[in-house]
Amino acid sequence: MKNQKWISILVIAVGVIAAVYFGLGSRNLGTSSSAAPGDIPSDAVTASGTAQGMEGPVTVEVTATKDKIYAIKVTEQNETKDIGTKAVDQLPAAIFSANSLEVDGVSGATITSNAIKEAAAAALTSAGLDPAAFGYTKAGGETKAASEGTAKKEIPADAVKGTGTAKGNNGDVTVEVTMDADNIYDVKVTKHQETEGIGTKAIEQVPPEIIERNTTKVDTVSGATVTSNAIIEAVKAAIKDAGFDPAKFDVAKAANKEKAEDVSYDTDVVIVGAGGAGMVAAIEAADAGKNVILVESQTMVGGNSIRATGGLNAAKTKWQDANEFNEGAGVEAKLKTAREQYADNKDIQTLADTVEKQWAEYQAAPNGYFDSPELFELDTMIGGKGKNDFTLVKTLVENSSAAIDWLDSIGAEMHNVGSFGGASVKRIHRPVNAEGKTTAVGAYMVPILEKNVNDRKNIQVLFSTTADKILMDASGKKAVGIHATGETGNNVTINAGSVVITTGGFGANLDMVTKYRPDLKGFMTTNAAGAQGQGIDMATAVGAATVDMDQIQIHPTVEANTAHLITEGLRGDGAILVNQDGKRFVDEVGTRDVVSAAEIAQPGSYSWLIVDQKMVDASAVIQGYIKSGYTKQGDDYKALAKELEIDPDTLDATINTWNGYVAQKSDPDFNRTSFASPLDTAPYYAIKVTAGIHHTMGGIKIDKNTEVLKEDGTPIGNLYAAGEVTGGVHGANRLGGNAVADFTVFGRIAGQHAAANLGTAQGSSTAETTASATAETKKAA
Q1: 20: buried, middle or exposed (CB in 10 Å: 19+, 13-18, 0-12)?
Q2: What pLDDT does 529 receive?
Q3: Average pLDDT of 460-484?
C-alpha cells in the first residue's frame, strides 16, 4: 500500500511538471520566451552572453539555429524593480516573437533593454551564429555589441585603465576609461543616478563619440547637457588617473562619417519637431489611422518640453475638488485688477462680469473647489497684458480639462494640484513619483509621450534630421511636404498630405532674441539647443504671418551658475525670495515679468530662493536641486544667512515676519495672496537665482484649428502649427503651467486636424526609401 501511495504521488508530480513544461512552453514567463521543446530542432545551439545593464551584468541564454531563435531568457540580472525589470519581463518575448534583435526597447528602461539585446547578440556569437542575421546589423555592415555607456575598439595588451568622477544632474557620474598614450579604447559609465530617458540618453551617446573621435571635445546631447558634461569631465579625470595628460585629448576632431545618399519618403502627415507638441500631434494623427513621420533635428526627443518643471493648468477638474478652497483673496484681487487696470479691454471686462457672478454664487452656496473656465481665461488674459488672441485663449482653456483626461489615457497622470504664479486659485496639475512627491513635469511626461510614439507602428521618427523648407504645390497655396538635411548633409525629402510645424520657439537663438529685444543681450537662456526659430523662418518663407515676436519672457528663478530652471512651483508651495540685503522685495507668486523686473532691480540683479526641510521632504524636484549642488544650507535662519553672506539679524527678522504673514493670511508688504505653509522646519536651504530668457510668446499666427494663417487671415492649405512656435495665446507674458497646457491642447488639435484634412481614406504606406538609406539618415525611434 505504501509503495502504491508513493507511486501515485510520483505520477501526479510528473504530470504536473509535464503540464507546466509543455503547456506553458510557448508563453512568455517573465524573463523567458521559448518554443515548445518538441518544436526545437536537434541542430539548435544554446549559448549565453553578458552585457552591462543599469545595475550590473545582464546575462541572456539563447537557443537558436542560423535563421531562427527558439528560446531566449534572462538568466542573471540585478536591475531596478519596476524600471529595468520591465525590460527583463517584456523584451525576451518581443525578441522571440519578432525573431529579431531589432525590436523597440522598453521606454523608461533603455539601458536594460539594450543590455539584453547586446547580451543576446553575444550569445549568438558564442553559439557560432551571426547576430546580423537577426537584425543586429548596423551601418557599414558592422555588428554592434555595445551597451549604452560603453563602446569598444580592439584593446592592446599594454592599455591601462583609469577612473574618474564628476557631478551629474542627480549626483555623481563615474566613468572607467581604457587607453594608452595615443588612443582611448573604451569608455564605460560604471555608476550614475541620472534620469532614465533623459540623462541616460547622454550615457548612450557621449561615450561612443569620445571613442570614435578619440577626444573629449565632443558635442553634448541636447536636453541632457548636465549629464553630458559630467561624462566628459569624468573622462578627463579618468585620463589623468590613468597617468596621461587630459589636454592631449581635449582637441576638436571631425567625425569620420561618409555622406549618406539622398532619401525620399511619402507619408500622410509629416511633423517637424519632436518636443511635446510634436509627439502629442503624432499620437493623435496616428490614432486617427494616418501614417506619420516625425522629424527631429536633435538626437533625442523632448526639446524645451523636457525642461518643463511645473505642470499643466486646467480648470474645473475633479482633482481640484480634492483641495480645500482658501484662495478667495486671490479671486478678489484679480477682479480688482481687471476693473482698475483693464477697463478698456472688452474681453477682460466681459470675463470679469461672469466671474463676479460665479464668485457670488459660490460664496452663497460653497460646493467643491472654486474655479471656472472664465476665471482661467481672465488670469491668462491679464497675465498676457490683454494682448492675447482671445479666441486662442478660449480654445486653450475649454480643452484643458479634457487634456488631463487624455493624458491619463496614455499613462501620464497629473493629479496633484497646486498654486502657481499669476493664477488666482490652485490650478496647476502636477505629477508625483512613487513616494507621492511632486516631480518635474517635463522629465515625467516626455518619456511617456516617447513610449506612446514608439508603441504606434504607424509613426516613424527621424533623428538628426533638420528641416529647412516647406514644399508647396504648383499653385503655391498648399503645403505638400518638407525638405530636410540629414546628419551627414544629405537631402531628405518628405512628401505629405499634411504638414505640422512644432519646432518650438527661438529662445536659444540669442541673435534672433536680440533682433526683437536688444535689451536682452547678454542674458542667459533656459532653452534647449534646438529652440532656434527655424520653424518660424520656414513658415514665413511660404507666406505665414507672425504675431507678438517682440514678446519674450524672462524667468526670475534661473540657477545663477548653470542656467538650470528652478521651478516656479516652489514659490507657489511657500518659498520666498530675498535679496543680498536679506529682505523680500516682491510678491513671489506674481507674474514672471513683474517678479523678474523686481529681481533685476536688486543689488547684483539676483536673489536667494529660500525653502525649508518640510518643502524638501515633499518635493523630489528640490531634492534633485540639492543633489546637483545648487543649494546652500543652514540649521537656522542665522546660520543660513552666514552661508549667504547676509546679515544674520536681517534674514532672521525677514523670515519670522513672513511666517507671521502666513499665519495671518495677509501680506501687507507686497499683497501676496498665496501662502501655503510657514518656513519653520530646519534645516533651511537657499538657491541663488537670476533672470534668464525662458519663453518666446510670439511666433506663427494660427487659428483655433491650428491652421497657419497668412497676413490676410486666410489659411495656408495643409499647413498646421502648435506649441511655442506659434504666437497669440500668451500675449505679452505666459503664465507658468500654460506652456504644457498649450502644447498638449494645441498639439492634439493639430494632430486631429492634420489627419482629418486627409479625409477618411486608409492611411498611405510610406514609400520605400532609396536603396542606400542608412541609419545615419533614417534614425527611427
Answers
A1: exposed
A2: 80
A3: 97
The 10s digit of each residue's pLDDT in 504-520 is 999 999 999 999 999 99
Peptide bond connecting 683 to the previous residue in cis, omega within 30 degrees of 0: yes
Whole-number pLDDT of residue 311? 95
Other C-beta atoms closer than 10 Å to the C-beta of 456 total 15
Contact 558/526 with Cβ under 8 angstroms? Answer: yes
pTM of the model: 0.72
Q: Which helix (H) or strand (E) element contains residue 364? A: helix 346-364
Residue 403 contacts residue 722 (beta carbons within 8 Å): no
Q: Which helix (H) or strand (E) holds 717?
A: strand 715-721
Interatomic CA distance for residues 589 and 81, integer angstroms: 39
Catalytic residue set: 592
Cβ atoms within 10 A of the Cβ of 13, count?
10
- Strand-pair category, 491-501 with 715-721: parallel
Helix (H) or strand (E) holding 578: strand 576-578
SS3 551: coil
The half-sphere exposure of 140 on its side-chain side, counting CA atoms within 13 A, is 9
Closest CA relative to residue 694, chosen from 587, 534, 565, 577: 565
Instruction: Please say whether the beta carbons of 695 and 739 come within 8 A.
Output: yes
Q: CB-hemisphere CA count at 13 Å for 41?
A: 8
Q: Tens digit of pLDDT for each residue in 164-202?
A: 999 988 889 999 999 999 999 999 999 998 887 788 889
- Return the H-helix or E-strand segment holding 720: strand 715-721
Output the pLDDT for position 255: 65
Residue that is written with C-alpha cell 516652489 in the block: 570
pLDDT tens by residue, 194-222: 887 788 889 999 999 999 999 999 998 87
State yes or no: pLDDT of 767 exceeds 70.
no
Residues 6+ apart with CB under 8 A from 175: 163, 164, 165, 166, 187, 188, 189, 190, 207, 231, 234, 235, 237, 238
HEC profile of 153-193? CCCCCCCEEEEEEEECCCCEEEEEEEECCCCEEEEEEEECC
Q: Show the cell assigned to 719.
A: 499647413
Closest CA to 372 of 397, 346, 391: 397
Query: Which phi and psi (to 5°) does residue 603 adopt?
Result: -55, 125
Quick check: helix, strand or coil at residue 198?
Answer: coil
SS3 317: coil
Residues 558-574 as b or e (16 or more Cβ within 10 Å = b): bbbeebbbbbbbbbbbb
Q: Identity (one letter) of the amino acid at 692?
A: G
Report which of 530, 564, 531 is spatially closest to residue 227, judged by C-alpha positions: 564
Tracing cell 522629424 back to the chain, one arrives at 295
The predicted model gives 467-487 an average pLDDT of 97
Q: What is the 3-state secondary structure (H, E, C) of 526-548?
A: CCCCCCCCHHHHHHHCCCECEEC
- Length of the chain counted residue by residue: 781
Q: Label residue 135 left, alpha or beta by phi (over 0 means left) and psi (-120 to 50 means alpha).
A: left
615 DSSP 8-state letter: H
Q: How do residues 543-558 score in pLDDT, each as one tens digit? A: 999 999 999 999 999 9
In angstroms, rounded to a whole number, what is the distance separating the alpha carbons of residues 53 and 112?
5
Least confident of 133-147, 397-411, 594-608: 133-147
Q: What is the mean pLDDT of the chain?
A: 88
Task: Express each pLDDT in 479-492 by its tens digit.
Answer: 999 999 998 999 99
Nearest to 368 by CA among 409, 415, 320: 320
Distance between CA 216 and CA 238 in Å, rounded?
11
